[in-house]
Amino acid sequence: MTSDAFRLDGKNAIVTGSHKGLGAAMAVALAQAGGNVACSGRDPNPGGASGDIRALGRKTFYFAGDLADAKVCAALVDKTVAEFGSIDILVNNAGIIRRAPAEEFSDEDWDAVISVNLTAVFRLSRLAGRQMLKQGKPGKIVNIASILSFQGGIRVPAYAAAKGGIAQLTKALSNEWAAKGINVNAIAPGYMSTDNTTALREDAVRNRQILERIPAGRWGEPQDLAGATVFLCSPASDYVHGHVLVVDGGWLAR
Q1: Which CATH number fits domain 3-247: 3.40.50.150, 3.40.50.1980, 3.30.470.20, 3.40.50.720?
Q2: Residues 6 or more apart from 211 whose CB is under 8 A from it?
Q3: Which of 27, 74, 162, 243 could be bridged to 18 by S-S, CB 3.0 to 4.6 A?
Q4: What is the pLDDT of residue 2?
């Protein structure tokens, strides 16, 4: 296998939740591999990813909207097809987190997390999958799962439920679409240094407990997902289907 197997020249991608953090790093990584990338986020400010992608000579745009709204999901897909002509790659990264003891966890927080972290992923996958099948050429869908796809977590029942659902949704879609040329896989990040984990990193006790368990001895950085993302979006992974690739510094192996 040559390095060309990891190239994405001429491929058109969507990366949700790419205003900053993990999504921005993954979007730029796809552009560095040759892809055009549509970025999206709830923040009306596009952040830095689109500028970095444009500087690489790739096509890009930023789409602002709340993916909890089914109409926003549809509009993002429609705009990508209109701007780029096709969708070859979808990275479902957008997600939120709410923390509270289970006995106090509200219906509102439950619905909000499930809506963005699981339902929107299905809606976007359905829309992108439909477009890929219509195009009649190979496509890649990568869902962002979590180590909480395997573990229960603490004080995050909705997040854990959604990420467990992502792992199963990945397998379910893979079973239907693998023979039709669409690879559906997932990446399960470990403890990453992002806005979602600010509360944990600022808690001296939890921060120490987490670091003591990570064999790599550090929190993950957004760039740590770049290689896994390019691999699962490129021809190098053409025979990989329904897999959840863990990128956690060794956390689950401990």
Answers
A1: 3.40.50.720
A2: 217, 218, 219
A3: 27
A4: 67
